[in-house]
Amino acid sequence: MQPAVLWRATRAYSLPASVVPVVLGTVLAARGDGTASGEGQFDPGTFALALVGAVLAHFGANVLNDYFDFIKGVDTRPEHGSGVLTGGFMTAAQALNFAVLLLGGAGLCGLLLLRVHRDVVFPLGLLGLGCAVLYPAFLKKYGFGDLLIVLAFGLGLTLGAYGVQARSNSVRSWLLIALYSLPVCLLVDAILHANNLRDAPDDRAANVRTLATLLPKRAGEAWQLFLLFAPLLFVGIGVLTRLLPLWSLVTFLSLPLLIRAARTGDVPATAQTHLGFGLLYTSSFLLRPVFL
Predict the structure, then answer these.
(1) Helix 182-205 / helix 16-30 crossing angle, nearest 10 deg
(2) Over the stretch 174-202, which tens digit does the pLDDT of each residue have?
(3) CB 18, CB 153: distance < 8 Å
């Protein structure tokens, strides 16, 4: 199998969905609880394992999703999914083997982290595995995609990266980190919803339920605008209420990316917006906090 085909099968353009929350959780762990008083910790080895594991799990879930959509007859045209199955570049059996290999690599990273961080890795690992396998296999027809993507790629990865590196795991800290992850949750759902808006006619024909198929077209497009621009609203309110440092206003530099994603509806453009906003947002926690 050619490396280019394997790379295409992973839908690597969506990579920000797993990288950004891990980096955010790591930066917040390095700052303690994200405030001036928190004592932080950064462990390069733990960070590397968490990042590699998250990326492998993400890629494995993408390939597995393509596999189930193909064998169930949801994806039929070359532009569906990654295109490697519908275009004949890979067989269904090869896709399944590749997905198992990727998820196995993610599991190995999880096992290495489990030795030291069992209380964090075990429940979040089960959540991620459940989302990766159960959603495309059984739950997709019930419209749970948006909820699962937020739980796995927004909350799960941010809290996981934070939990395996932070000194303090108090309830207050967990709740604060979960709140900080909200903009990332919204933008990762924007990637999924952009994909679902594009595929809505075919999904309806295949009896697949997503928000894009359940909502009228205009309502679905309005929801996408909310997912794209609500993170900036969150930042503005967060700075005004002293939840976020003044530096978080740097995220408004991502406005051109947000406007482009809103105007084109392009899935890779939405993923790039997630990356641009996410890196700006994460960087705002690196500096010494200054509040209004």
Answers:
(1) 160
(2) 899 999 999 999 999 999 999 899 888 88
(3) yes
* HSE value, Cβ hemisphere, 13 Å, CA-based, for 243: 16
* Separation CA 161–CA 125 (nearest Å): 12
Q: For domain 3-283, give its CATH number from 1.10.600, 2.30.30, 1.10.10, 3.90.1150.
A: 1.10.600
Domain ranges (residues) in the chain: 3-283
* Residue of 119, 183, 176, 120 lying closest to 150 (CA atoms): 183
Is the CB of residue 19 less than 8 Å from the CB of residue 51?
A: yes
CA atoms within 13 A on the CB side of 15: 10
Count Cβ atoms within 10 A of the Cβ of residue 242 and give its class: 0-12 exposed, 13-18 middle, 19 or more buried.
Answer: exposed
* pTM confidence score: 0.90
255 vs 244: CA distance, rounded Å:
19
Candidates 176, 82, 171, 160; CA nearest to 126 is: 160
Whether 60 contacts 131, CB under 8 Å = no
Q: pLDDT of 243-279, one tens digit each?
A: 999 999 999 999 999 999 999 999 999 999 999 999 9
